UniProtKB/TrEMBL annotation:
InterPro entries: 5hmC_binding, EVE_domain, PUA-like_sf, THYN1-like_EVE. It comes from the Bacteria. This is EVE domain-containing protein. The lineage of its organism: Bacteria, Pseudomonadati, Pseudomonadota, Alphaproteobacteria, Hyphomicrobiales. It holds the Pfam family EVE. Residues 2-141 form the EVE domain. It comes from Devosia ginsengisoli. PANTHER family: THYMOCYTE NUCLEAR PROTEIN 1.
Length: 144
DNA sequence: GCCAACGTTGGC
DNA sequence: GCCAACGTTGGC
């Protein structure tokens, strides 16, 4: 199993929105990704993989955990390219649980063990990998 | 609101 | 295939 981190601007789609949707039994399609590295990461996701839910711009903190419940499939919001093909993909996710204590970007940056986290190293990448050790540490820091 | 980092586009 | 110009993301 692999671990990931997915960013969302909370004024567009927050972790609260995510949990409400899961409670209603609706999967969330992670649409709107228009970056090949982020897309490739999504295409590598397996069923049951876990991801941190990160609030970008507002909050700048890891607020919860989500789970992959459908493998990558064409993004229904994407326009076909000039060959009529949709190159953008998304996975479906559901909320697992919030972090009791959200972990801020400032805290992550102040933690030497997390200096290589892709969130820090590749700040513009919206879907990034998280190592197993990094995952466990952030869960602990988040009060789990 | 500014700017650094980085991805994409298009001319050559 | 290189690289300059431009656009976008996201932290500050």
């Amino acid at each position: 199993m692999a671990y990931w981190l997915m960013k969302s601007e909370p004024d567009v789609f927050s972790f609260d929105d995510m949990m409400a949707k899961t409670k209603r039994g609706e999967p969330e399609q992670w649409h709107g990704v228009r970056n090949y590295t982020a897309r490739n990461n999504m295409m590598e996701m397996k069923l049951g993989d876990l991801a941190f839910f990160y609030h970008s711009n507002i909050g700048k903190e890891i607020v919860g955990i989500i789970k992959v419940i459908a493998l990558a499939h064409p993004d229904s919001t994407a326009e076909p390219n000039d060959k009529g093909k949709i190159v953008w993909q998304c996975v479906d996710v559901e909320a697992v649980k919030p972090l009791p204590k959200p972990v801020t970007l400032a805290t992550v940056k102040a933690t030497p063990e997390l200096a290589n986290l892709e969130l820090v190293r590749l700040s513009r990448l919206s879907v990034s990998r998280v190592g197993e050790d990094e995952w466990k540490l952030i869960c602990k820091m988040g009060g789990l």
